[in-house]
Amino acid sequence: MGVYRADSSTTKLRVVFNASAASTSGVSLNNCLLKGGVVQDDLFSILLRFRNHKVAFTADVKKMYRQIWVNPDQCSIWKNRSYKEPSLYKLLTVMYGTKSSYLATRVLNQLATDERKKFLLASAVSFKDFYVGVLSGAGMFHQL
Length: 144
Hints:
With 144 residues, this protein is α+β, with helices and mostly antiparallel strands. The protein is built from 4 helices and 6 strands. It has one domain (2-138). The strands form 3 sheets. A two-stranded antiparallel sheet has the order 1-2. A two-stranded antiparallel ribbon has the order 3-6. It comes from Araneus ventricosus.
């Protein structure tokens, strides 16, 4: 399904999936996907650390899922109809509505690992203080 917004300057037509909707077999895509583990600290601990800072900052993760590429071996979707040839679609990025929060957090952790030598402090903050759009803070503005 597509959502059209004429007033949008960046994305006039956005593809929307309902991964919780049951297929003709009664099973949804979300029923077939693994949930993934918890790869971040608990929210209470993150919020306590967040409130200790004099200066706080957040990040807009609105389009984050659409920036995460899916393994090419796992991106094919097909629809088999008895009255015509099967249709093959490729979904190249993680989509909203699926069990994708684990993947988003896991990708951030991998990025923090990969870039640790160049960005030591940012890497530590990403591992320890990230929760959805809340990142962290600092004692002074120049430390950000």
